[in-house]
Every structure is written in structure tokens, then in C-alpha cells.
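Q: what sequence does this backbone want?
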């Protein structure tokens, strides 16, 4: 074992994140999916620290006896008047977790903000979110102080220390995720605690703000004054915390080279290591049945499509392809504008080519709405009633046919369906049919006229006209198996589709195309997404493996939209055998994105942090 490996094997690892046991965004996915491989490597020398939220902790967290160095640190904190919860996060791997009840200590807020200004020259302001971050940060710094005290008073063997010449100089390794968990890092450096530190910014604050409002963000990025931009957007306090953490950490990291490019300009420090995000592939594993699952879930999407479109007109479901995009409702950042423009151009291409193919494209994202549209719901309910009635009639026909055959009687088709059943079916069909075009949105939007997706669809006159081979369904809610519309969970829906499209303009990493790969579904991403740049750098034949990357960084919007439309056309006009072969190649690539592979980048960052802390 090398010196660096021996150093990391004999430390405690603490990861600090605002989303520990609290699902808010992408950090939750990173921490949760990485937990099994991290726990396997570190065992009970690993612990996560986050804020205590009683609503989410009640289902995600289980308290346990306060044993070991982390439990002892919690005991010391309680003796010093700080409320904490010690237990396990109820996810795969069941890692230890410490949740700090910061809301019960608001009497410490004024002092915490004062020390942030006095010691780190950061003015916190008076925003509720920043107030909570600062208060949690100083309480988390107390946890590290108590953990260091617990290790000093414990037996070296119990602390997991080695007898090497470094002894207890830096027995703790701490990894902080995003600016909301960064304040304790500043205090660790100020107090000179025996903690080696890593800070990861998953998306720079200014990058997310500016990219959403400037279509030429990357072109102008080198000339942007970060301090002026932070002031103009009113995020000077957040930016100050993020920049100070980047400079204070022993090792600074980002998740991709595209975010590293931003960080170098905005935060003034080039990342030491890139930490690509991974997945727990075992969760998605269906090695011998993923093709069958595709067929199964595609049939359920067929049923939604029949209920939604067939009251107005019909098309051949055997020649229908399902495409989707999904993510947070950030219209430009997530590339929804590019996706819709690409669909309009694909519509024109399919019209000219006369392929007979129909494409139903879904936009899946939570947007403000008042609930499912009554007309959309009515169509689905009538279709389901029609389906159930036909099933009952067909069962009755089957019984009559069996009886006739068993009795040796001659079979008369007219006798199989009685007049009542025929009349009932006719009435249901008449009630179901409608003259208007199928709706482009499934819900009643809070602000229909100003919704960006609907605005663009209307501007492009994509109204689900029967002559258009490309149809669009905007579903402004996350998918659920209990929904009366599609009735599939997200993973099931993805398996039933033929293509995922995520041409993001601002995407530090991008889990959606990686999840497609794990589920055996081809995808298109962009070279402005961290996943896209990683695929291009590490998988030379990514197109042949069903992971397409659209050029956006050095092309105009028009050029990128053409590239996207061409890529969709190529994939969607494949024959059935070619599509099956492509799905097989996509699924076979998924182990490359397993945390078992990608966690090695974390180990390198951790080793580097310990080596630097020992030499400083």
C-alpha cells in the first residue's frame, strides 16, 4: 500500500450537504446514489452531515445509539447546548448521518453573521435562505470541533488511526457540496482544525443566473466581471461564500470541465480534480428483460396516446415513436427551447420524406398548474371505460364461442354480440369522439398565455394538427404510477420511449441522459452539458453506442437546431432491428457510469486533500 493510500485508509470521512435526507435537487441524487460505494469503502468511518428537516427526516432517517467517534461528537455537541440527531440515512448502504437542528438555535444567528463578516469579510444580508445557511454552517463547524475533540480523547485504535509518523495531525477528511454547505469549511480553516477539506461546486451561482438570461453567455464569459454580476443579481453574499470556499479548500473540484471553465473565471481558481457524477447502476439493472420491459411500458404509453389523440384522429401505433425531454423547468438552461425548435424542423423533414412515421414528443417538467385539464381527463376516462367494456364483451364472446364449439353448433358471428352491447359501444364511441385537435398540454396552467413552452409551440403553430407527423404533449407535472393519465413512474416511462433528448444550454452534469443509458434508451445531449463533454472525451464511438452529442458551444442556435433535427431523424427512421441493436449497445455501456467506476475520481481528490493538508 502506498503512503497516500495508507493515509486515506486511516481517516474519517465526513460529507456535508444541504440535501442530506432532504430531496431538493441534484445534490440529493449525487449523495444518495454514491452512498453504497462510499459506505462499502469507508464503513462506519463515513458520515454525512446536513440540516434537520422534521418533515423529510421522518421517512428518510432513523436514529441509532450514539457510538463511535461521530456518536461521541454528537454527545459533546449536546453537552454544549446544540441539538443534533445521530442515525442512519434510510437508503441503500444505510450510511451514518448527523442532522443538525439549526432551526432551534436562531438565537445564535446574529453572532454567526457577525463572525462571518468579522473573520471572512462576507456580509450575510437578511435573506431567509442565507440566514439558514449561515446558522447551519456555524453549527456544523461546531460539529467538526467536537469531532476533533472526541478523537483527541479517544484511544488511537478506536479512532481508526495508524501508528505512522503523521499520527493525529489531520485525522479527519471533510467534503463540502455547494455554497449552501460551505460556511463550516471557512471556519475550519480559521480555527485551524485537524481537517483536510474538499469543496465541490456542482454549478456556479453566477453561471446558473447568467446562462438563463443571456443566449451568448459562453461567448462573453471571459469578459464578465463576477463581482459586478453578483451585485447586479443581488447574490453578493452567496457568491462571497462560494468564492471563499473555493479558495479555502485544500482541494477544489467541479463535476465537469464546462463548470471548471466557469469556476476559473468566476471563482478565480482552476479545479484541481473533476468529479463526474455516477449512478448506482444496480438500481436500474434488468439485464435479461430490458427489451421486454420496453415493449410492456410502450403499450401503456400507447393507451395514453389513444385516449389523448384518437378521439380527434388516428394514426398507426406500429409506426409511432416516443420522444421525451425532462428536467427542472428552466426553459433555456435545460434546452427546452432547442428541443421544441428541433421538433419543428423534424416535423418538416418527416413531411418531406413521407416516411409514414408519427412522433409523439413529451415535455415532462413540473410547472405551475391548477390540475389536470377536464377535457384531457374526460378523454382518458372514457377511453378506459371503452377499453374495459370491450374486454368484458370479448370475454363474453369467448364464452359463447367455447360453448358453441363444445356443443358442436354452427357459429354465427351476429349471435356473438347482442344488441345491447352493440348499442352501448356505439354510445360510448360517440361520447368519446371530438372535433377539436388534441390538446398540447395536459393540465390547466396558472399562466397559460405567458408559459414559455406553450408560447413557443404556438409561435411555431404546432397544435397537433392531423397532417403533422410530430405531435407534442406538455405534461407539467412529474410522472407517477398513480396518475390517471399516463400511469407510469418516471423510470418506467423512460423504458417505454424510443429516445430522450436533452440539448441543454447550461448543465454542469446532467443525469437524464445517463439514466437513459442505464435503462437502455438512446439519448441526445449537448456539448454544454458535463455529461456530453465527458462522453466525448472518454467514449470515442459514443454515437454508435446511442449517446449523441449536439454541438452548441461553438455553433449558432440555428446550426445547433439543424444538428439536433438531423440526429433525431437518423435515430427515429431506423428500422425495428436497428433500434433493438442500438438499445442493446446503449445498455451495455451503462457500467461505465456506475459509481464503482467513477468513485475513483473522489478517492484521488481525497488523497490529494490529505497530502496537501499534511504539507501545509
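A:
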Amino acid at each position: 500500500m502506498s503512503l497516500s493510500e495508507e493515509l486515506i485508509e486511516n481517516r474519517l470521512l465526513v460529507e456535508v450537504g444541504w440535501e442530506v435526507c432532504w430531496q431538493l435537487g441534484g445534490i440529493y441524487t449525487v449523495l444518495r446514489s454514491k452512498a453504497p460505494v462510499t459506505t462499502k469503502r469507508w464503513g462506519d468511518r463515513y458520515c454525512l452531515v446536513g440540516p434537520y428537516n422534521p418533515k423529510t427526516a421522518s421517512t428518510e432517517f432513523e436514529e441509532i445509539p450514539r457510538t463511535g467517534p461521530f456518536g461521541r461528537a454528537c454527545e459533546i455537541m449536546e453537552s454544549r447546548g446544540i441539538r443534533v440527531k445521530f442515525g442512519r440515512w434510510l437508503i441503500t448502504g444505510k450510511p451514518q448521518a448527523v442532522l443538525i437542528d439549526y432551526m432551534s438555535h436562531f438565537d445564535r444567528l446574529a453572532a454567526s453573521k457577525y463572525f462571518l463578516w468579522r473573520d471572512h469579510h462576507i456580509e450575510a444580508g437578511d435573506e431567509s435562505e442565507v440566514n439558514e445557511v449561515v446558522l447551519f454552517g456555524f453549527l456544523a463547524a461546531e460539529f467538526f470541533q467536537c469531532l476533533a475533540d472526541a478523537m483527541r480523547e479517544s484511544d488511537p485504535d478506536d479512532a481508526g488511526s495508524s501508528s505512522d509518523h503523521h499520527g493525529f495531525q489531520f485525522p479527519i477528511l471533510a467534503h463540502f457540496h455547494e455554497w449552501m454547505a460551505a460556511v463550516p469549511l471557512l471556519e475550519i480553516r480559521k480555527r485551524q482544525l485537524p481537517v483536510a477539506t474538499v469543496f465541490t461546486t456542482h454549478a456556479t451561482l453566477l453561471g446558473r443566473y447568467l446562462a438563463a438570461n443571456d443566449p451568448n453567455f459562453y461567448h462573453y464569459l471571459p469578459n464578465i466581471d463576477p463581482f459586478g454580476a453578483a451585485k447586479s443579481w443581488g447574490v453578493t453574499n452567496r457568491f462571497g461564500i462560494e468564492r471563499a470556499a473555493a479558495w479555502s479548500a485544500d482541494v477544489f473540484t467541479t463535476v465537469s470541465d464546462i463548470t471548471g471553465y466557469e469556476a476559473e473565471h468566476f471563482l478565480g481558481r482552476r479545479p484541481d480534480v473533476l468529479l463526474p457524477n455516477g449512478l448506482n447502476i444496480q438500481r436500474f439493472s434488468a439485464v435479461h428483460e430490458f427489451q421486454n420491459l420496453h415493449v410492456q411500458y410502450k403499450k401503456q404509453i400507447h393507451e395514453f396516446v389513444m385516449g389523448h389523440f384518437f378521439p380527434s384522429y388516428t394514426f398507426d401505433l406500429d409506426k409511432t415513436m416516443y420522444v421525451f425531454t425532462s428536467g427542472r423547468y428552466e426553459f433555456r438552461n435545460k434546452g427546452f427551447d432547442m428541443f421544441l425548435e428541433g421538433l419543428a424542423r423534424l416535423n418538416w423533414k418527416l413531411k418531406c420524406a413521407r416516411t409514414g412515421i408519427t412522433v409523439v414528443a413529451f415535455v415532462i417538467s413540473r410547472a405551475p398548474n391548477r390540475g389536470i385539464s377536464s377535457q384531457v381527463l374526460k378523454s382518458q376516462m372514457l377511453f378506459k371505460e371503452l377499453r374495459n367494456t370491450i374486454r368484458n364483451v370479448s370475454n363474453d364472446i369467448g364464452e359463447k364461442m367455447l360453448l358453441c364449439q363444445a356443443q358442436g353448433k354452427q357459429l354465427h358471428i351476429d349471435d356473438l354480440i347482442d344488441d345491447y352491447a352493440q348499442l352501448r359501444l356505439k354510445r360510448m364511441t360517440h361520447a368519446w369522439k371530438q372535433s377539436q385537435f388534441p390538446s398540447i398540454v395536459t393540465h390547466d396552467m396558472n399562466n397559460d398565455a405567458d408559459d414559455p413552452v406553450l408560447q413557443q409551440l404556438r409561435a411555431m403553430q404546432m397544435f397537433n394538427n392531423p397532417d403533422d407527423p410530430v405531435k407534442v404533449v406538455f405534461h407539467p407535472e412529474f410522472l407517477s404510477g398513480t396518475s390517471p393519465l399516463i400511469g407510469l413512474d418516471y423510470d418506467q416511462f423512460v423504458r417505454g420511449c424510443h429516445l430522450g433528448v436533452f440539448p441543454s444550454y447550461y448543465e454542469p452534469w446532467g443525469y437524464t441522459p445517463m439514466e437513459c443509458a442505464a435503462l437502455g434508451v438512446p439519448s441526445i445531449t449537448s456539448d454544454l452539458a458535463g455529461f456530453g463533454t465527458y462522453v466525448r472525451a472518454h467514449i470515442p464511438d459514443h454515437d454508435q453506442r446511442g449517446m449523441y452529442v449536439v454541438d452548441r458551444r461553438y455553433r449558432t442556435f440555428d446550426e445547433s437546431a439543424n444538428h439536433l433535427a438531423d440526429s433525431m431523424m437518423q435515430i427515429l427512421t431506423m428500422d425495428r432491428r436497428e433500434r433493438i441493436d442500438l438499445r442493446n449497445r446503449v445498455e451495455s455501456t451503462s457500467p461505465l457510469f456506475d459509481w464503482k467506476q467513477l468513485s475513483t475520481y473522489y478517492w484521488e481528490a481525497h488523497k490529494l486533500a490529505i497530502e496537501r493538508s499534511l504539507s501545509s
